[in-house]
User: Fold this.
Amino acid sequence: MSEADRAVKPAGARDTPLYERLKAEIKQRIDSGEWPADHRVPSENELSETLNVSRMTANRALRELAMEGVIVRVKGRGSFVASKKRSAPFMGVRNIADEIAERGSLHTSQVILAQTEICGHELAEALGVEVGSPAFHSVILHHEDDLPIQLEDRFVNAAVAPGYLDQDFTTTTPNAYLTQVAPISHTEQFVEAVLPQSWECRHLAIARSEPCLLIRRRTWSADRIVTSVRLLYPGSRYRLESSS
Assistant:
């Protein structure tokens, strides 16, 4: 224990680790409404200086609060009180822009990649086309207000949606365009918990240790596969729900 940690440890608290007491203090401020949703939480350095604890203690407290979903740590911006997790329906296919608008928030998107690729064996099988066929590949980052909440990595059957790369996906979404030109007849989707790759962490502004929700989805229009897509959500910012 550091000298700073010894200095603030009161009598009778010997059995409670200081980082737990710091977590409780932060939770109390959140629960009381002093720190509302999206409020910026003091940094490790600020907590160390104002509460007279070591930076190691502050780091552990903030790290564990993030793992518990109490706060959200955004790389390069700091820590913030977590809002109630956004929800996406697991059954069916929704337009993420519509979901965000229904919550009263602003949807924006950033096109990271948009190009034509030639199908190898794996991609050809995923799209139900011949090896060597063209396919469109897009990677789009979706934001709710200023917070990145979904990374969409999509391959599209070029024969079904030949105008795909002509669209401005900062003003519309792939979902909106594709459901218009190739109405969905049925879907196949799987969900799993994963750890993000380095490039995904950079775009979502999360740590490599942040658990994420991954949806793998294929959609058909009539008897043709339209798209194969990976949708990655930071686990601290999103949840999937279903009702029947």
